Amino acid sequence: MPKPRFFSGIALLALLAGGCGLAGASPERDVVVPAEPTLIDFVDPATVTGLSTRTLTEGNSSTSVRYAYIKYPELADAPALNRALAEQARRQLRDFRERTRRRGVRPRPELNVDWQLAAASSQAIAVRLRTGEFLGAGWGNSTRTLWFDPREGKAVGSTELLNGPEALPRLAALVREQLEGRGAQVEQDVVTGGGDEFDSMAFNHSGDLVVEFDDCQIGPCPLGRIAVAVPAGQVAPLLSAFGRRAQEGVQGDDVSGPFPHVPAHSPAAASNKAGTVDCAKVKCVALTFEDGPGPHTGRLLDVLRKERARATFFTVGSSAAAQPELLRRMSSEGHLVGNHSWAHRDLSKQPTSRIADELGRTEAAVAAAIGQSPTLVRPPYGAVSRDLYDVARTMGFALVTWDVDSRDLEGGKGADIAARTVRETHPGAIILMHDIHRETVDAVPDILKRLRGKGYSFVTVPELYGPAHMQAGHLYRSGASRPVSSP
């Protein structure tokens, strides 16, 4: 399948996602808001030893009440931070479930939480959580930054960067000064230092304190993210001992931008064992795993290698960028790496620019890891739209869903997942599974054994279609049915 390059506009969108503050610009044409000081220099997670990712997810079928996808990092030497992040994730999911109990709401409510490392040094670690909520009228976004003090072994909120409660109103005054000139729509007087106003703070590489506000927090919702950078010299008297260490650590960090390096002329991704099975002569099935890589992906690869079975992995871009070694192993062991978007938002709700950003950033992360560009996209939640078809056709992606759902998101033991999967499998099936769950990986040996006993061979998705190949802008649900070329 031809694979044209398509990155126009993506670098800018990546900067927006990286926190440059452009969304906070005044609507007045003669007011220019400096963007660079509010740019947070995020740390490349692939450089952090012992980092993996955890995921909470809900909804993957037409009967789902809501969609939820929460991802956060887990660090080997920061157990208190891991506990705090896990509890934050569980709390957000519980609250979202409570607020979206009503069935039959269309489009479905959606919760999405992604993360970035705002600091990672021996002095301090900071995880910036970016939350998006869709409740029908549009997306609302917020940020929260949790910090970890390695010296004390404690996880703390952003206000612990400051030297006690008395520093909050003094910081609020400095923030209000920075907001002057942003235009009448920015309500600087509401910044008093109370509540959750300062729940997302980090340092830029110059040591300035970047204070981020949520959508709608200090201005009309269409303004989006508003952020200010309080100069290092002004904020220094307000910092706690931990805040000073964190500031020093960030200034010494080896940082990188949010958009991965794209190898020039990377070939289309393909299994290095493709062609060893003729699906026109034998019964073939494609195991597909999505939402990873995660903490159980390595064990899954061990199982597949032992059983000499191939699979297709639809990876989430942010996790792929954090754990490229797992992608390299997938590729080297004959599996196919596909694209599952950057942050796992429902792409059918997104404009074309956001769809292109989500797919382009993930393509770049995969290409940087394995030297090949993915040609297959698994839309999050299997949701498609005409805009998604159009972008996929332009960018050279074929869309892949499934016709056999293991329903591993519903929980249950590995034996239950295996029994459902084997019972519903047929020649040419594309099977949906998730390598982020322990029970799913537990089920795989039994699935392989029982299906092989029925005469099945395990291949990557393109091998199901043989010489017909897969076409950009078409949707493939099963090797036993024709592709769909429009919604």
Concise structural overview:
By secondary structure, this protein is α/β, with parallel strands linked by helices.
- How many beta-strand segments? 18
Structural class by SSE content: alpha/beta
Report the β-strand fraction as a percent range: 15-25%
Taking Cα atoms only, what radius of gyration do you get, to the nearest Å?
Answer: 23 Å
- Helix content class: 25-40%
Count the DSSP helices: 12
Order of helices and strands: HEEHEEEEHEEEHHEHEHHEHEHEEHEHEE
CATH class of the largest domain: Alpha Beta
In CATH terms, what is the architecture of the largest domain? 2-Layer Sandwich
The largest β sheet comes out as: 6 strands, mixed
Low-confidence stretches: 4-35
Apparent shape: elongated
Number of separate domains: 2
Order of strands, main sheet, comes to 1-2-3-4-5-6
Walk me through what this model shows.
With 487 residues, the chain is of the alpha/beta class. It has two domains: 19-252, Fervidobacterium nodosum Rt17-B1 like (Heat Shock Protein 90); 283-476, Glycoside hydrolase/deacetylase (TIM Barrel, Alpha-Beta Barrel), CATH 3.20.20. The chain has twelve helices and 18 strands. The strands form four sheets. A six-stranded mixed beta sheet has the order 1-2-3-4-5-6. Strands 10, 11, 12, 15, 16 and 17 form a six-stranded parallel beta sheet that branches. Helix 11 (414-424) crosses helix 12 (438-453). The model is unreliable at 4-35 (pLDDT under 50).
